[in-house]
Amino acid sequence: MKWVYIEDISKYVGMEVELRGWLHNKRSSGGIRFLLIRDGTGVIQGVASKKDTEKESFSLIDDLNQEASIVVKGKVREEKRSPIGFELTINSIQVIQNKEGYPISPKSHGVDFLLQNRHLWVRSSKQWAILRIRAEVIKAVEDYLWNKGFLRMDAPIFTPSACEGTTTLFGVDYFGESTYLSQSGQLYNEATCMGFGRVYCFGPSFRAEKSKTRRHLTEFWQLEPEMAYAHLEDVMELAEGMVGYTVNRVLKKRESELNTLERDTKLFLSIKTPFPQIRYEEAVRRVNELGESMELGEDFGAPQETVLSGSFNTPFMITHFPESVKAFYMRKESLNSDSTLSFDMLAPEGYGEIIGGGEREFDRKELEKNIKSRNLPMDAFKWYLDLRKFGSVPHAGFGLGIERMVAWICGIKHIRETIPFPRMLGRVYP
Ligand code: 4AD
Ligand code: MG
């Protein structure tokens, strides 16, 4: 008999198949037993009765516990009332393992308990839907870049230099030498893009974020494209194209997961490129107008981002941040200006920043000045400065935080549920 997956079940109507999975839930009504079987690709209802089911199999159903691992054979039927449109008439059940006391029952649990049991929690239907959408988002952004001619060039995780400031570094003793866990692959992208033209890296980024917010993890995944000869407008266009494509693709391919999450997708349908753009000064003015105070020259904090992004129905971009709130590598708008050729993309509905990027300083003298004025160790950046010595050209790029993007698409409040095993202040288990 053929082993099939629930996601392909429509191809097997009228046929006998084998499903290998776990018992999600069960109920009985008179002489009939209804088993919700999940196999990682979906959930199907199996129906067992004295008439259709082998005697031995039928008699063991009442002792099956939630998450018992089972191999079920049966016949696929169309069933209009089923959420997936199909049911299985069960012939036989083989029990691989069955134990009572699975800690996560369908009743509600506190979030600390669930995080402590994250290794089991990933099986629950809402978590399953979120992580399936995460996988789709990752594939979508990579496909988008690949189709635009970008090559994936992985960046190292152990790094000698800080990319995004020295306050959020995780230090690692590297055989007696002090290194850090990477905050961003950008600096390495700047090297590989001079070799390959258009590149991206995708991997974990680490930030010792000491604040507990719904937007921050200490380990998150970043997708970072970088283009030689590109300017700010070029990468902003790339970013909006990528986000638009990804939202559409999730809408098309992960509709049932979005339904499981009860995500209202109306707003997604009206998302069109180009996205609205406002300059930093205008954004600060609007934040104050919306009732959160902030001064020119300051960065947006969580409350400021929340009100501003709550006033939009579509992703939008803030451009030309002042030097004071951006990293050393940002190129200035003009020599005497303190505005930089930078942008952030914010998701609407209060979600806030999902992308940060801009044009890089490609003049060696200017870059050296920036490194000095921020008291960064010149030695660690020797190789980076080399890039400005040989064939230096304008170039630009950005970084997308996968978890923030997934949180917005899924419509969930806290990004801790958007990664299989979240790392945050006070949590490195399991
Ligand atoms: O804005 P950030 O710090 O930009 C950079 O790291 C650049 N070097 C990227 C580049 O130009 N190649 O981070 C980029 C994105 C943010 O917009 C956000 O989505 C995400 O990374 N991010 C975080 N996500 C979760 N937890 C955190 N602590 C995050 N910090 C940044
Ligand atoms: Mg940022």
Could you please describe the fold and organization of this structure?
There is one protein chain. With 430 residues, the chain is α+β, with helices and mostly antiparallel strands. The chain has 2 domains: 96 residues, Beta Barrel (OB fold (Dihydrolipoamide Acetyltransferase, E2P)); 301 residues, BirA Bifunctional Protein, domain 2 (2-Layer Sandwich), CATH 3.30.930. Helices cover 29% and strands 26% of the residues. It has 13 helices and 17 strands. The strands form 3 sheets. The chain has an 8-stranded mixed β-sheet with strand order 7-11-12-17-16-15-14-13, with helices on both faces. Strands 2-3-4-6-5 form a 5-stranded mixed β-barrel. Strands 8-10-9 form a 3-stranded antiparallel β-sheet, with no helix packed on it. The mean pLDDT is 97. It binds 4-amino-1,4-dioxobutan-2-aminium adenosine-5'-monophosphate and magnesium ion. 4-amino-1,4-dioxobutan-2-aminium adenosine-5'-monophosphate binds next to strand 12, strand 16, strand 17 and helix 13.
Summarize the model shown.
With 430 residues, the chain is of the alpha+beta class.
The 3D shape can be described as elongated
Number of alpha- plus pi-helical segments: 13
Largest sheet: 8 strands, mixed
Average residue-wise pLDDT: 97
**Ligand types:** 4-amino-1,4-dioxobutan-2-aminium adenosine-5'-monophosphate, magnesium ion
The amount of beta strand, in percent, is 25-35%
Q: In terms of per-residue confidence, which ranges show pLDDT below 50 for 5 or more consecutive residues?
A: none
Counting structural domains, the number is: 2
CATH fold-level topology of the largest domain: BirA Bifunctional Protein, domain 2
Distance between the termini: 38 Å
Fraction of residues in H or I helices:
25-40%
Provide the CATH architecture of the largest domain: 2-Layer Sandwich
By CATH reckoning, the class of the largest domain would read Alpha Beta
**Could you tell me the number of beta strands?**
17
